[in-house]
Amino acid sequence: MYKNTIYDILSLNVRGIRDQPKRRSIFAYLKNHSLKIIFLQETYPEPSDETIWKSEWGGEIFFLMELNTVIKGMYSYSPYDAE
After folding, report:
1. Residue 72: its pLDDT value, please?
2. Where are the domains of the chain?
C-alpha cells in the first residue's frame, strides 16, 4: 500500500523548554536534521509562549496543554526540509 515511503519522525523528551537559551539550542539542533514531524515531550508551555515559540521555530507548532496534568508537549511539521 505505501511502498517506498519514508517517514522522518522524531520524538524527544526535552524536560522543559521555557528557558530561552535551552529552547533556542534545541530548535537549532532540530533545524539541522531532515525531519518531517517532530514531537517534543514535556515542553511545559504556557498559553503566552505560543506566539514566541512559533516565531523562534519559524513554522507551525501545535500545542497540547492539558490543565492539571504533566501531559504537556508540542509537535510540528518541520519547515526545514533538507532535501
Report:
1. 57
2. 10-77
Residues 22-75: tens digit of each pLDDT: 999 999 999 888 788 888 988 888 888 889 999 999 988 888 776 555 455 666
Edge-to-edge, what's the strand order for the sheet holding 9-13? Answer: 9-13, 37-41, 72-77, 62-65
* Alpha helices (runs of H) in the chain, residue ranges in sequence order: 20-31, 50-57
pTM: 0.75
Q: What is the pLDDT of residue 68?
A: 53
Is residue 39 within 8 A of residue 10, CB to CB? The reply is yes
Q: Is the CATH code 3.30.110 the one for domain 10-77?
A: yes
Task: Say how far apart CA 49 and CA 57 lie, in whole Å.
Answer: 12
Segments of the chain assigned E as strands = 9-13, 37-41, 62-65, 72-77
CB-CB contact of 17 with 26 (8 Å): yes
